[in-house]
From TrEMBL:
Gene Ontology biological process terms in this record: regulation of translational initiation
GO-annotated cellular components: cytoplasm
Family annotation (Gene3D superfamilies): Impact, N-terminal domain
Species lineage: Bacteria, Pseudomonadati, Bacteroidota, Flavobacteriia, Flavobacteriales
Similarity comment text for this entry: Belongs to the IMPACT family.
Pfam families linked to this entry: Impact_N (PF01205)
Residues in the signal sequence: none
Name assigned to this protein: Impact N-terminal domain-containing protein
Length: 204
């Protein structure tokens, strides 16, 4: 079971690709929603208000089962901009990402082949400048127990090197943990079979 994915941690530096006087500025941003992607797009449209096209592609999700993506040619010939950009997202195997390529027209038409190459190259350059990291796909659990069971629960957490996200330690206690997907079933069973301890999976 694959339980890792790759993404970027921060916006990449601006890159520039030139072809026959046309300029293609490339950007990569970490995003998790379409709303976040739209904010970056609007900021770039303000920054490059004299540009001709703001073409982009994004992909969200942590595994192929829940990937969402969009590719936008923004007025360029069909599939000459958005899909070449998205192709680089696939090539670098990254997700939760937006790549935008801003074009200033230089007066010479590049043809569809030239456009595909330019948008692909600018997207590739942006990704090469980005800080790509590998993350684990985790599942979240809530562990509920009474205070007397504290030592048993904490021992299980320590023995299994589990990551505590939040804890509420009162008379009735709750601890929230994240577990790598491949280990989730085994960890669930350990707590589920512990006397006076309840565990349930949460949606992240």
């Amino acid at each position: 079971m694959k339980d890792t994915y790759k993404t970027i941690t921060k916006a990449s530096p601006e890159v520039l690709f030139k072809d026959r006087n046309s300029k293609f500025f490339g950007y990569a941003f970490p995003v998790r929603t379409e709303e976040e992607a739209n904010i970056h797009l609007e900021e770039l449209k303000t920054k490059h208000h004299k540009a001709r096209h703001w073409c982009y592609a994004w992909q969200f999700g942590k595994s192929e089962a829940d990937f969402q993506y969009r590719a936008n040619d923004d007025g360029e010939p069909s599939n000459s901009a958005g899909m070449p950009i998205y192709g680089q997202i696939q090539s670098f195997e990254v997700t939760n990402i937006l790549i935008v390529v801003v074009r200033y027209f230089g007066g010479v038409k590049l043809g569809v082949g030239g456009l595909i190459n330019a948008y692909k190259t600018a997207a590739q350059m942006a990704l090469e400048e980005a800080n790509i990291v590998k993350r684990t796909i985790d599942e979240l659990f809530e562990i509920s127990f009474d205070y007397p069971e504290m030592n048993i629960v904490m021992r299980l957490i320590k023995e299994n090197n589990l990551n505590i996200i939040e804890q509420k330690l009162e008379l009735d206690c709750k601890i929230y943990i994240s577990v790598r997907k491949k280990d989730a079933a085994a960890i669930f069973e350990k707590f589920d079979t512990t006397y006076k301890v309840e565990i349930k999976k949460l949606e992240d």
